[in-house]
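Write out the 3D structure for:
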Amino acid sequence: MKMNKSKAILLGVVAALGINQVYALDTLRVAEHAFTAQQAVDYAMKNNVQVKNALLGIKLQQETNRQVTSVAFPHINGSISTTANPNVATQVIPNFISPATYQVLIDKGVKDGNGNPINMPPDFGFISAQFGTRYSANAAVSLNQILFDGQVFVGLQARRAAMEFADKNAALTAEIIKANVLKIYYQLVVSRTQLELLDSTISFVQKNLADTRVLYKNGFREKLDIDRVAVQLANLQTEKNKALAMVSNGYYGLKVLMGMPVSDQLKLTDTLTPEMIKDGMLDSESYDYKDRKEFQYADLGRKLGEYNIRRYKLSQIPTLALNGVYAKNAQRNTWNFLNQDQRWFTISNVTVALTMPLFNGFVTRSKITQTKIELERTRNEIEGLKRTIDSEVASSKNNFQSAISRMDFQKQNVELAANVYQQIKKKYELGLGSQTEINLAQNEWKAAQTNYTTALADAIIARIDWLKATGKL
């Protein structure tokens, strides 16, 4: 790899300063890649941002599935708490002590100071009392386990379909990126052919210019003839410069699509010939909707919609759950809960609860109806997608066949235009032809070359569209 200017300057500075250490020049080197079309696709599958995000979507769905599964597992919680009551709550209760005391006095026949028998007063009022202690503590372990829940059951069943849905979304994204990478890759390969044809034309015009100058020196041509050929050569050089700029921009676009740093060097190693484009052309015109990633994705959406309806229907049946608590509780007037001599009291209970939904304002019925409507829309979209696939297959087939025909015709036209140019050039060199004739022949040859490269690019794009339409890309 040739040393670029920045490296040369850096080495010059190092030498001037007399530094003996070798700096990490590898960080300054530009990575070079020589890729076939398949290698370019493989690179894009690993580095394209959209593909990477789609793959992250699969991981997100995996975590969602784990959350669904966790609902069916036991949930165990532990808790420790302590409470301080600076002012213990006071409760006002009926006076239940005085009536009993009076009853004893009445039963014993005790008399008051006036000698009269003691009678039960009509109202004894209330007593203010504090219940509880200044401090309390609690340590507990609780268990919650769903024994049966229809919605959880459906969620567990739908996990695989949800994962497939995420997988198909990633596959659909990857297919779109693959098609675009292949199209740009082969367009750049065709542009390389176009540049080669331009170079060939420029070589012929340069030779023609040299020959015209010789003929001019010998008195067989005019100075105007030299000027005309020189103008043609300048136009060709300008056209080549434009083509080079377009190709360079094309490489930038391909790198971005592949997820490659723009500063990296990319070389395309594949070639493109009419035989390669025709290889296996329309071997089988049959196709299956299920081969299309879009159809697979939509069909999984339909399946998930059906699971959604089942989920809402099963939400109307009872749920069964198990709950258990084991705890230690203590009350103190002083905070000494760490004293092992003090007593803790045990609390434990086990509960099995059956919950029966009776009425929720018809919201579940509305959700079921809404989900059925959404499912019907999905089915309609699938039917529409079938018609779209049929149309894409038919149109891509026509485009492919038409592109092949144009490519073959333009290839023959290039060969014919080249032969015409060679014949007129020989006549011109023998002094039997005019500069106008050779200029016309050259322009026709150049136009034929341009038409051929355009037809070649159209043919490979049509082939990619056909493979994508039939689900065979």
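Residues 255 and 261 are 7 Å apart (CA to CA).
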